[in-house]
Design goal:
Number of helices: 4
Helix content: 40-55%
Largest sheet: none
Number of domains: 1
Structural class: mainly alpha
Low-confidence stretches: none
Strand content: under 5%
Oligomer: single chain
Amino acid sequence: MPVPGFESFMLPLLRALEDGADHPVSEVRERIAREMALTEEDRAELLPSGKQAIFDNRLGWAKTYVEKAGLLTTVKRGV
Protein backbone atom coordinates (compact mmCIF):
# COMPACT_ATOMS: atom_id res chain seq x y z
CA MET A 1 0.00 0.00 0.00
CA PRO A 2 1.52 3.36 -0.90
CA VAL A 3 2.02 5.91 1.85
CA PRO A 4 -0.98 8.29 1.81
CA GLY A 5 -0.71 12.06 1.45
CA PHE A 6 0.10 14.26 4.43
CA GLU A 7 -3.55 15.22 4.88
CA SER A 8 -4.34 11.63 5.85
CA PHE A 9 -1.94 11.87 8.79
CA MET A 10 -3.55 14.90 10.42
CA LEU A 11 -6.42 13.16 12.22
CA PRO A 12 -4.30 10.20 13.44
CA LEU A 13 -1.74 12.75 14.68
CA LEU A 14 -4.37 14.64 16.65
CA ARG A 15 -5.74 11.37 18.08
CA ALA A 16 -2.24 10.34 19.17
CA LEU A 17 -1.84 13.63 21.04
CA GLU A 18 -5.36 14.08 22.41
CA ASP A 19 -4.36 13.31 26.02
CA GLY A 20 -2.43 16.60 26.16
CA ALA A 21 0.76 14.97 27.46
CA ASP A 22 4.20 15.42 25.88
CA HIS A 23 5.06 12.61 23.47
CA PRO A 24 8.37 11.87 21.73
CA VAL A 25 8.07 12.05 17.95
CA SER A 26 9.36 8.46 17.68
CA GLU A 27 6.47 7.21 19.85
CA VAL A 28 3.89 9.11 17.81
CA ARG A 29 5.46 7.88 14.56
CA GLU A 30 5.16 4.24 15.66
CA ARG A 31 1.58 4.64 16.85
CA ILE A 32 0.45 6.25 13.60
CA ALA A 33 2.22 3.64 11.47
CA ARG A 34 0.39 0.88 13.38
CA GLU A 35 -2.94 2.68 13.18
CA MET A 36 -2.59 3.14 9.42
CA ALA A 37 -1.36 -0.44 8.96
CA LEU A 38 1.81 0.59 7.14
CA THR A 39 4.34 -2.16 6.56
CA GLU A 40 8.09 -1.81 7.11
CA GLU A 41 8.46 -1.69 3.32
CA ASP A 42 5.96 1.20 3.14
CA ARG A 43 7.83 3.04 5.88
CA ALA A 44 11.21 2.47 4.24
CA GLU A 45 10.21 3.86 0.82
CA LEU A 46 12.30 6.93 0.08
CA LEU A 47 11.56 10.23 -1.60
CA PRO A 48 13.03 10.64 -5.10
CA SER A 49 16.01 12.42 -3.51
CA GLY A 50 16.76 9.21 -1.61
CA LYS A 51 17.46 11.14 1.58
CA GLN A 52 14.25 10.77 3.62
CA ALA A 53 11.47 8.21 4.03
CA ILE A 54 8.17 9.27 2.45
CA PHE A 55 6.34 8.32 5.67
CA ASP A 56 8.57 10.55 7.81
CA ASN A 57 8.27 13.40 5.33
CA ARG A 58 4.49 13.28 5.14
CA LEU A 59 4.07 12.94 8.89
CA GLY A 60 6.40 15.90 9.32
CA TRP A 61 4.30 18.03 6.96
CA ALA A 62 1.11 16.99 8.74
CA LYS A 63 2.66 18.05 12.05
CA THR A 64 3.75 21.37 10.55
CA TYR A 65 0.28 22.24 9.28
CA VAL A 66 -1.50 21.10 12.45
CA GLU A 67 0.96 23.18 14.47
CA LYS A 68 0.43 26.25 12.24
CA ALA A 69 -3.32 25.83 12.79
CA GLY A 70 -2.64 26.20 16.53
CA LEU A 71 -3.76 22.66 17.41
CA LEU A 72 -0.43 21.52 18.85
CA THR A 73 2.87 22.94 20.01
CA THR A 74 6.39 21.62 19.98
CA VAL A 75 7.72 21.82 23.54
CA LYS A 76 11.29 20.92 22.56
CA ARG A 77 13.02 19.26 19.66
CA GLY A 78 11.71 15.75 19.08
CA VAL A 79 8.80 16.12 21.51
